[in-house]
Structure formats: structure tokens, C-alpha cells
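Entry 12.
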Amino acid sequence: MDNTYLNGLIAQGLAIPFLGTALGSSCVFFMKKEMNPKVQRALLGFAAGVMIAASFWSLIVPSMEMSSDMGRLSFLPAAAGFCFGMIFLLILDMIIPHMHLDNTVEGPKSKLKKTTMMVLAVTLHNIPEGMAVGVLYAGWRAGFLAGSEEISYAGALALAIGIAIQNFPEGAIISMPLHSEGLSKKKSCLYGVLSGIVEPIAGLITILLSSLVIPVLPYLLSFAAGAMIYVVVEEIIPEMSEGEHSNSATILFMIGFVLMMILDVALG
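Predicted 3D structure (C-alpha cells):
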């Protein structure tokens, strides 16, 4: 298998999550101007389930397995990386102005439009997902070239597919509120798509820095996990719990978690 073929597989893997966002954003052409709040909470629950399962099965577990030679201290890279990932997203949240789906604004005061801040919020939270995919593909490529199987291609592909699945409702959740704010369907879809372009870019940058990534791969795997969990705890869970009580978000959370777990175990 030559480098051209390897790079082609990696490019496909990086494009899969972005495709999920693009397809989800296109829902604005086929659905009502405003998304039903219950449906939105259910979709957020599904996304949360996928992200938590992906963080554990695809990132934290491999991080600890790769550190098994440390014996009882094999938890250190996973624990340190996880904490740094959460702190990194916390800092970005504080310095970048952005708007949540409930119209609350975080970050420094800004004159940016609501639509811009909403897109910034989703873009900001797509960074760790792109990094996670990039880290796994970088680890697989390096391992393949070295004759190692620490990270499998199927495992990296499973994470890319899982993130694409949760990006689909996320794309709809961003494009439809933009349309309800007064943007045309075309612009709403475009902004939704653009919010996802950061994922393959973050993944590509991670892979290009693979010579630096590989020595600290266990830390970076758990770093991406911590960043993703931060998004779930800080953003998704509060927003899926707002408004009238409903069990739909909890049920979709369960389905999302199990689906991602099955993908990772079956493919990985």
C-alpha cells in the first residue's frame, strides 16, 4: 500500500464528518422554518450520546491501552490529556464570543451579529471532533508504516462515521435557527456547511504535525476526548434539558451511545 493510497483513505476519512454536517444543514430546504423544540432536544440528546461513547471507546480506552507499559500509572496520559482538553475548550469559550441555541451569549463583549456568533459557537465545538479524527488517522498511518496495529483503520473509520452521524442533526440545528433569524435558506445552509469545514481542517493540521503527534499520542487521544466531553457537559446537556420535560432526549441519548459503541466495537 503506497503513500498515495494511504493519503486517499485519510482524505476520505476526514471528509466523512464534514459530509454529515453538510447533509444536516441541507435539511433547512425540506423542513419548516423553525424546528420543534422537542425534536431539537431529542437530536441534541442523540449527539451527546454519540460524543460520549466516541470519547470513551475510541479515544480514552486506546489512550490507556497505549500506555499499558506504565503499569499502574497507565492512567496518567489519559487523565492529563483529558483535563488539558477540557481546560483548552474552557479557555476558548471565554475568549471567543459565541451564542448558544438558547440565545445566551458567552465570551467577551462583541458587536458581531447573532448569526455570526451562532456559527462561531458550532465552529468552535467542531474543532475537537476534527482533532479526534485526525489523531486516530495519524496514529493509524504511523502504525501501519511501522508495522504496528495499535490503532486500526477500521477504528479510525468508526470514529469518523460516528461523528458524521451526530453531525447530521447538529447541521440541522444550526441552519434552521439561522433561517428563523431571517437568513435565506441558501445562506442558512451555507453557514451551516461552513461551520463544519473546520473539522477536516483541524484533522488535516493534526495529521501534518504527525511527527510531533505520535510521541504524545496517548495524551492527544484523551485531550480530544476531554474537549468533546466539555462540549457535551457545557453546551449540549443544558440545552437538551431546557423547556418542558420530555424523555425523548434521554432515549435518543441512549440510542446514540449504543450506536457509537456498536460501531467502534464492530469496526474497531
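Annotation: The mean pLDDT is 84. The CA atoms of residues 49 and 146 lie 34 Å apart.
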